Amino acid sequence: MCESLPGVIVDLNGYEPDAEKNVLFCGNELSEVFFVIDAKTEMEVYAGVMKECGIDSDSQKTVYCGSFTEVTTPGTYYICTDKIGRSYDFVIDQDLYQQQLRALCCVLYDMRCGYALENCTHPHDACHTNQSALALENDSYLDVSGGWHTDGQYNKDIVTASGIILNLLMAYELNPNAFTDDFGLEYSGNGVPDILDEIAYETNWMQRMRDSFGGVSGGVVVDNPTDFVNPEMDQGIAVIEEISTEATAAYVTAMARFGGIYKDFNSDYADQCLYYAEQGYRYLSSINITDPQSMQPAIWYMVNAELFKTTGKQAYHIVIKHLISTPENVFLNEDGEGCMEPINPVFWGNYAYITTNRYAKVDICTAIMENIMEEAKCVSEESDASPFLVDTSLYTAKDNMRILDEMQVLTYVNYLITNKEYRTLIQEHMHYLMGRNPQSTNYMTECGIMTSVSDTDYYCIGYQNELYYNSVLILVLSNINNEYEIQN
Q1: d(C-alpha 264, C-alpha 275), whole Å
Q2: Which residue blocks in 385-486 are alpha helix, DSSP H?
Q3: Is residue 222 part of a domain?
Q4: Domain range for residue 447?
Q5: Rounded Cα distance, 8 and 88, in Å
Q6: For residue 25, what is the domain's CATH number?
Q7: Band of pLDDT at residue 162, cut at 50, 70 and 90
Q8: Fewest CB atoms within 10 Å of the CB: 92, 136, 210, 484?
Q9: pLDDT category of residue 448 using cuts at 50, 70 and 90
């Protein structure tokens, strides 16, 4: 039996039987042969040959790659080779991605505020039920319980929540069959996909964060939280943030998208969401008229594109055509990052415009397609050149947000022009996040399963418990599960 050393790198979450399976080896002058061992019987089930695929720039060790796609029998395995020992155990199992998708969707329920949680990972009584803060008007107080905790400090940020909703609704819109009404939650079986039930819980809270003119608060910040383990015991002071154009724009976009999709399940509530979205738009219009510099063009583009998609009103289309006067306009090629974190308004504006069933301008759609295809091509080329099968030149162990951004783009491109290359590339990115990386760490679940990591390190929390990251992973996993007709 091989000695346990962290030089054999696998996806710690496992592989599906029919999927491509690659393992990485980090070391110098390694033997060419590796073995797949059944962890239960200690019997060798496969012998493979590794090949050199590059140098790890950090450790300066040679990285070798081996394939064991031929191993398809469900079970628990590990991989070993001479000199650097064995990997940690991993599984091969049917429907792994679907299992992960369901678990991630249930995390949203776990993050509810002001609600007694029972069928979840961390059951507890209703938390923050006494939360109140100075209201947006009239110097009165407002109950601000409800919604999701968007971070570990019990804060509830409108822009972040809107970004989560947009990712979830894109996932549902592209792959509705991936989202069922049987996730084992209390509202399962009510005829509405569970993911939409969860979004409705959040939008109920978000609607309370607006003033009578349609402006929306940045959210609720909890000052001096007192208990990070038992949320129902926390005595932190809730403070409502000021009205902001960024929060209002994010809110309008998310509400419009949800209203457009939810009408098939509850038309009255969908109409209410759309009413509040257009009220917020009027507020933004008044601000834009009096202070044109108050809102970046990319944000204004996103808002109008989403409302045009949902309502078909030409007033929104006129604004879009004014912002994008020609297909070559550099505005379409902006990356949109940094002005509205974590939302990329150019991405969401482009997505809304190109997926509308309204009459859209072909030249604008063509320019959007060319832009996103070029971005996907760059991701593919950089990944192919990396020994880890994912471009790691700009990433660190504590910042894989760029990888999640790439997965978001690849998921959309895979939907537009489905082919095996993009599907495989998405899976390679997922394998990277789940352990097949230089740190041998499963970023999705918890901190360094294979490494010694300080409790203060950011990536200890696990991406599945950071709701925005969680929503990107839901988007990606729902696409991986969707049964497209693959084009070779």
Answers
A1: 17
A2: 401-416, 420-433, 467-481
A3: no
A4: 375-488
A5: 8
A6: 2.60.40.10
A7: very high
A8: 484
A9: very low
Poorest-confidence range of 88-92, 185-189, 251-255, 478-482? 478-482
Strands 33-38, 44-49: pairing is antiparallel
Q: In Å, how far from its chain's centre is CA 229?
A: 25
Over residues 59-100, the pLDDT tens digits come to: 788 999 999 999 999 999 999 998 898 999 999 999 999 888
Q: Are 364 and 395 in contact (CB under 8 A)?
A: no
pLDDT of residue 458: 32
Coil vs helix vs strand at 77: strand
pLDDT for residue 317: 96
Strand-pair category, 85-86 with 90-92: unpaired
**Placement of tokens 């039987």 in the chain:** 17
For 324-342, letters b (16+ CB in 10 Å) and e give beeeeeebbebebbebbeb
Token pair 């003033």 in the structure block, residue: 211
Q: Please say which residue of 45, 67, 92 terminates a domain.
A: 92
Spatial separation of the C-alpha atoms in residues 421 and 206, rounded to whole Å: 39
pTM of whole model > 0.85?
A: yes
In the Cβ-directed half-sphere of 186, how many Cα atoms lie within 13 Å?
A: 10
Neighbouring residues of 241: CB distance < 8 A, sequence distance ≥ 6: 217, 218, 219, 220, 221, 247
Q: Which residues pair with 156 in a beta bridge?
A: 220
CB–CB of 148/113 below 8 Å?
A: yes
Please, which residues have CB within 8 angstroms of residue 374's CB and are 6 or more apart in sequence? none
Q: How many domains does the chain have?
A: 2
- The residues near 487 (Cβ < 8 Å, ≥ 6 apart) are 417, 418, 419, 420
Distance, in Å, from the CA atom of 94 to the CA atom of 440, rounded to the nearest integer, reads 23
Mean pLDDT of 346-370: 92
Indicate whether 161 belongs to any domain. no
Which DSSP letter does residue 107 get? H
- Greatest alpha-carbon pair distance for the chain in Å reads 75
Query: Which among 27-31, 72-76, 123-127, 358-362 has the top mean pLDDT?
Result: 72-76
